[in-house]
Design goal:
The chain is α+β, with helices and mostly antiparallel strands. 52% of the residues lie in helices and 18% in strands. It contains four helices and four strands.
Length: 146
């Protein structure tokens, strides 16, 4: 009886220790995010993941639908056109600001630029384009791993 109890206790201890790693590995296989891979984070994997996800400009447009209903698509298109002039792709995410002012937040890689009020969004456009060019120059000009 004592041997069975010891075996159960040993199994519980092993399960408690291994469960976080097993859960992280399962989530890694689901998301393919190398930061979640237990005991296997390498510089090459992080660089590959960073290159594929961070060289994008995302504009989070928090739109006040109470004051300006139905005009968010026009403003989002004007933002996209402003970035197209500089040959930079922009993804716009429109969210209801729930009564507060209309603002724009630009995300380039790890940088967060803003939020800017709607009438001063052009300052954020210029800053986001400059940050994008700095980021892409860094990625393209980085030395190969060796």
């Amino acid at each position: 009886m004592f041997a069975r109890r010891g075996v159960r206790l040993l199994a519980v201890i092993i399960g408690v220790i291994a469960l976080p790693s097993v859960a992280a590995l399962a989530w890694y296989h689901h998301t393919q995010d190398p930061t979640l891979r237990p005991l296997g984070i390498t510089k090459a994997a992080l660089n590959e993941h960073e290159e594929t996800t961070s060289s994008e400009v995302v504009a989070h447009l928090y739109w006040n639908t109470q004051k300006e209903p139905g005009r968010s698509k026009d403003f989002a298109q004007s933002l996209v056109r402003a970035f197209d002039v500089k040959q930079v792709e922009l993804r716009v995410v429109v969210t209801d600001s729930a009564g507060s002012g209309t603002t724009v937040l630009f995300v380039v890689g790890a940088s967060r630029i803003g939020p800017f009020p709607k009438d001063r969004a052009v300052k954020g456009v210029n800053a986001a384009i400059a940050a994008f060019h700095m980021l892409t120059d860094k990625v393209e000009g980085s030395p190969p791993d060796g």
